[in-house]
Amino acid sequence: MSHTIAARIQAAEEQLRQAMLASDVAALEALLDPELLFTNHMGWTFTREDDLDAHRSGMLKIVDLDLSEQCVLVRGDCAVVSVQARITGRYNGVPSNGTFRFMRTWAPDEASGQWRVIAASSVMVV
Predict the structure, then answer these.
(1) Continuous segment of H or E residues that includes residue 44
(2) From CA 68, how far away is CA 121, in angstroms rounded?
(3) Distance of alpha carbon 38 from its chain centroid, rounded?
(4) What would the pLDDT profile of 33-47 be if each residue is shown by its tens digit?
């Protein structure tokens, strides 16, 4: 069972990557839990709406997003993903490039069963 969940999470991670690259707000809405808590590498906390607004407005534009070193840990009804991401893009018109380590917690939505990110954090890799 955990192998099947891990495969689903890996597929969801790829969907998330594609949605972020395309600023596909509809796909991001489906993948990010309404109660999402995200803490970035600066220690700032964001909600799902903050993230969606950044994509929707064009404030955040990711040009390239290469993932590596992905590890999926399944426990009960949730999964934790650690992944390294090399990102090229712009935030508020300013180049924002770097390598980051993301930690995301995925859980199935109670109503639909669709896996969604409920919590995430990032650190800069130096």
Answers:
(1) none
(2) 16
(3) 9
(4) 999 999 998 999 999
pTM, 2 dp: 0.91
Retrieve residue 51's tokens: 């993230």
The domain in which residue 20 lies consists of: 2-124
As for how many domains the chain has, the answer is: 1
Q: 85 φ, ψ to 5°?
A: -130, 125
Under 8 Å between Cβ of 86 and 99: yes
CATH number at residue 27: 3.10.450.50
Structure tokens belonging to residue 19: 């949605």
Q: Are 118 and 79 in contact (CB under 8 A)?
A: no
CA 94 to chain centre: 21
